[in-house]
Each structure stands twice: as structure tokens, then as C-alpha cells.
Design brief:
Length: about 500
């Protein structure tokens, strides 16, 4: 799509203008790092989360879900190491005077985005967890990640769901971080959502799933150290060459990439980047990030650490509750290893899909949002060609009421048909259904394809079936009905 010139600020303005995302409490001047989703944004975000859940939980036999509390016992965050270590380094730029966050390993090495030097002598640590009151004199933290609730519930879930290794536990939910410099619209927020999986294995067992041969840019720690360029290669080859250390890690990195691509993201904009030695968390055996090329550079979409048995052991030590599970009929026990934890920000995924979908169409003179039908807010819009003809309006409303039982559809009768097509292009509605004079005669309607503006005529009695096939991408548009030429594209 022709979106390369779209900046993140322009995308934010577009999202506000159309009703996807607003600065939180904008009538009071907004609140840095907090954003509200509007009537279109919430639908896309819910679709995105549903697609993630379907792909990772519903369609698999080895992953089940939970929904843990946002506020939990503060001991959890002591055990996990967040109280001691979950801090950022604040540095002030000598030129623009703005505060920024950097990682510990970047001290003395990086510059401010404005080009100015940081005053590293005054660098200080800053605890990133939000604290809140509980009861009269208690306190707690707002969770900075969803993962720890998976570890604390690990034993219950494993027993209740009768899971056997290898298996995963997934969760989607809010996380909060007191970011020093929230920026780039939804990229760095103080309140956001995560979609996370902790995948538990016996470290002796090989990955039973196939690592496919899809290709991606690979940027290993060695390539970074030696100032080499990233290389495009197959996931399976990156594993065979020993660049990705474990089969499990290669498998999960590919799955996450395929999830994005399957929902219409541009595969050329993804890469996997290995953490350098000084960047890796102390407990991690190997960490890779799935990154995307945003207009503000290559940035992390997902962090995927091999966390070994660190977290479960920490919780065992601090709670006194054994985290070992029986792994065979002999009754041998083991604390499983987390071989990979695909951990994804919902809003960062939202940004990817919006950037890749956005196109300003010069011919149409309007934006076309090429969202995958599964992500689009409305699956179709029902439009009576004129609103003065009561019979056409009545039929259009009947079709709308019927479709509404199955899909989120829109009824729109205001303005010219051209304007209504444009309005739906802009919000990403994949199909517009127009009801005209001919509809009254032969009980047929036209269906317009957002991406090509082509139109087909379909019998009303076939509409639901045709729409289902089109939305699931099971049929080519031009084969789904009789192609018609119309004046208004
Ligand atoms: P970053 O280096 O960008 O701060 P991180 O390495 O701290 O990210 P993780 O702790 O690995 O992030 O969190 C997992 C995922 O949660 C990230 O890959 C990202 O998609 C999302 N995420 C983390 N922090 C934020 C944030 N402040 N705003 C939006 N999404 C976030």
C-alpha cells in the first residue's frame, strides 16, 4: 500500500478524525500515555484480540487461557524480581532538555532522538510500576505484565485442564507501566494491553511441530556486533545454522510472524532480532524480538525470551508451594522450562495493521483502509441507492436487519452513493451492498469490493452465503456474482 509517507502523527490524526482512537479525556487536554478507543477502534481491537485467541488457543490443543487480576498480591512482584529490577534509566538531553528512558546497557552509548548528547552523569533509576492503595492502609501495584499471573496459576491450570508437557497458558489483558517518555501514539503507552503465552516444556524434549520455510529478515547478535546487514532467510535455515538456538524458539517466532501475515500485514516489514549479550535479561537463555519497520524505525512488536525455569522457581522459593509437575508414569517430577513466551502488545499490533492497511487513493481522492475482513469493524454496509424511494429503503432495511444477526454491518442512507462508498472505504468496510430499482424487480443487489471498486450483482437469497465466502476469502470476488459496470465506483 502507498503508506510510506504516512507519519505516526498523521495516523493518530486519521484515527481521531474517523473515530478509531482519541487522546484520553481530550476535553481536559488529554493525559500523556493514555488513549481511548472510539466506536470503530474498539471493534477492530476486539477483532484483533479474537483472532489472536482463535489462532493461539481455540485452534490448538496445547494452549488454554486464563484471565488474571490486574491488581494482585504485591509478593508476586517481589518474587518475580519486578520490585527490585523493573526500572528504567532516566537521562536528560543536554540539547532539548527532555527526559528519556534508555536501557542500562545503553548508558554512555546512545544519543537523544533530537541528536543531542545525554547527561549520563545524572542518569538515575526510576521504578516503572504504578502503585495504588488497597483498603485503608494497604498498597499494591498495577501489573506491569500479564505473564506473572500465568506463573502463579500454573499448577491449578495444569491440573484442572489436565495439560501435559509441552503446553502453554495464554492471557489477554491490561498492563500498566509508568513510562518516562510515552510517545509515538500507541507505541509507547502507560496503560496498554498484552496478549501473552507462556509455553512450558521439558527442556530435554524436541519441538514436535514443523518449522516451516517462510522467509524473514534475520538480524542476529553477531550481525549486530560485526555491523553487518540483516539477512533474509528461512526460519528453518536460521535454526539449522544455529543462529536461532532452539527448535522451539524458531517454531514460535515463525508462528507469530505467520499470525501477522495471515491477517494482511506486509511480510517485508518484519524481521527477527536477537538480543545482544548486554541487552538480555539475566535469566534469559536466548531472546529474540519480532520487529516491524515503523515510520520511526525498526521497533519491537513482541519480545520472545527463553525464560528457562526462572519464574516458576522464583515463585516456588517465595511462596513455598511446589511448582513441579509429574511428567511420566514413573512419577518423576520436573519444574518445566518456559522455552518461549510470545508477548505481544495489542496496540502495537493495531498500529501494524493500520499502517499496512492505510492508502491514500489519488483516483478516488479518499483514504482506503485495506483492513483484512476479519479485522474490519463493519463487514458490510447496506446502502439504499436513493432514500426518497420508500420501497428501496424498506428492502434495504430488511436486508440490514437480517445480516445484523450474523455480522457487524452498517446501514447508511445519508449523502450521495459515491460519498457513502468513500466513507466506507475510509473506515475499511470491505463490501458495500447497494439496493436499487432493479432490486425491487428481480430481488438482487450489487456488492462493491472496497479494494478494487469492482461490483457484482447477487441474488438477495444468495447474499449471506456469498458474503460468508468473501469474508473468509474462500472465493474470488469476480466469481461470486455477475460482474456489472456502474457509473459510481
Ligand atoms: P520496550 O523495549 O519497547 O519498552 P519491552 O521489552 O519492555 O518493550 P516487554 O516487557 O517484552 O516489552 O513487553 C512485551 C510487549 O508488550 C512488547 O513487545 C510490546 O508489544 C508491549 N509493550 C510493552 N511496553 C509497552 C508500552 N509502554 N506501550 C505499548 N505496548 C507495550
Amino acid at each position: 500500500m502507498e503508506n510510506s509517507k504516512l507519519s505516526v502523527d498523521e495516523l493518530a490524526m486519521f484515527c481521531k478524525r474517523k473515530g478509531f482512537v482519541y487522546p484520553s479525556a481530550e476535553i481536559y487536554g488529554g493525559f500523556a500515555g493514555f488513549w481511548d478507543f472510539g466506536h470503530l477502534g474498539v471493534e477492530v481491537k476486539n477483532n484483533l484480540k479474537r483472532e489472536w485467541w482463535t489462532f493461539h488457543v481455540q485452534k490448538r490443543d496445547d494452549i488454554v487461557g486464563i484471565d488474571g487480576a490486574i491488581i494482585t498480591n504485591p509478593k508476586v512482584w517481589e518474587a518475580s524480581g519486578h520490585v527490585a529490577n523493573f526500572s528504567d534509566i532516566i537521562v536528560i538531553c543536554k540539547k532539548c532538555k527532555k527526559a528519556n528512558k534508555i536501557d542500562k546497557h545503553e548508558i554512555g552509548k546512545v544519543k537523544c532522538p533530537c541528536g543531542g548528547e545525554y547527561d549520563f552523569e545524572k542518569a538515575r533509576e526510576f521504578q516503572s510500576m504504578f502503585k495504588t492503595n488497597v483498603g485503608i492502609d494497604g498498597f499494591a501495584y498495577l501489573r506491569p505484565e500479564t505473564a506473572q499471573l500465568i506463573f502463579t496459576n500454573f499448577k491449578f491450570v495444569q491440573e484442572n485442564a489436565r495439560m501435559k508437557l509441552p503446553f502453554g497458558i495464554a492471557q489477554i489483558g491490561k498492563a500498566f507501566r509508568n513510562e518516562i517518555a510515552p510517545r509515538d501514539f500507541l507505541f509507547r503507552m502507560r496503560e496498554f494491553e498484552q496478549m501473552e503465552i507462556e509455553y512450558f516444556v521439558n527442556p530435554k524434549d524436541k519441538c514436535p511441530y514443523k518449522i516451516g520455510d517462510s522467509e524473514i529478515f534475520v538480524y542476529s547478535a553477531e550481525m549486530q556486533e560485526k555491523n553487518k546487514k540483516m539477512e533474509k532467510m528461512k526460519f528453518i535455515d536460521a535454526y539449522k545454522k544455529g543462529i536461532i538456538k532452539t527448535d522451539w524458539h524458531a517454531y514460535w517466532l515463525e508462528q507469530e510472524f505467520l499470525w501477522f501475515v495471515g491477517l494482511g500485514a506486509n511480510k517485508e516489514k518484519f524481521r527477527i532480532r536477537q538480543h545482544m549479550k548486554d541487552e538480555k535479561s539475566h535469566y534469559a537463555y536466548d531472546t529474540w524480538d519480532l520487529e516491524y519497520e515503523f515510520p520511526f524505525g525498526w521497533k519491537e512488536l513482541q519480545g520472545m525470551a527463553n525464560r528457562t525455569d526462572y519464574d516458576l522457581k522464583q515463585h516456588e522459593k517465595n511462596s513455598g508451594v511446589s511448582m513441579a509437575i509429574v511428567i511420566n508414569e514413573k512419577g518423576e517430577k520436573l519444574i518445566p522450562h518456559v522455552v518461549c513466551e510470545p508477548s505481544q502488545g495489542v496496540e502495537r499490533a493495531f498500529l501494524v495493521f493500520m499502517f499496512d492497511a492505510y492508502e491514500y487513493d489519488k483516483k478516488r481522492e479518499n483514504v482506503v483502509l485495506h483492513l483484512h475482513p476479519k479485522l474490519a469493524c463493519y463487514k458490510a454496509a447496506v446502502l439504499p441507492i436513493v432514500r426518497v424511494d420508500k420501497d428501496i429503503v424498506k428492502l434495504a432495511k430488511e436486508i440490514y436487519e437480517d445480516l445484523k444477526n450474523e455480522y457487524n454491518v452498517l446501514y447508511d442512507e445519508s449523502g450521495s452513493i459515491g460519498k457513502r462508498y468513500a466513507r466506507n472505504d475510509e473506515i475499511g468496510t470491505p463490501y458495500c451492498i447497494a439496493v436499487d430499482e432493479q432490486s425491487l424487480k428481480d430481488k438482487s443487489i450489487t456488492v462493491r469490493d472496497r479494494d478494487t471498486t469492482k461490483q457484482i450483482r447477487v441474488k438477495i437469497s444468495d447474499l449471506k452465503e456469498v458474503l460468508k465466502k468473501l469474508l473468509n476469502r474462500e472465493i474470488e470476488f469476480e466469481k461470486a456474482g455477475k460482474v456489472v459496470e456502474t457509473r459510481v465506483k
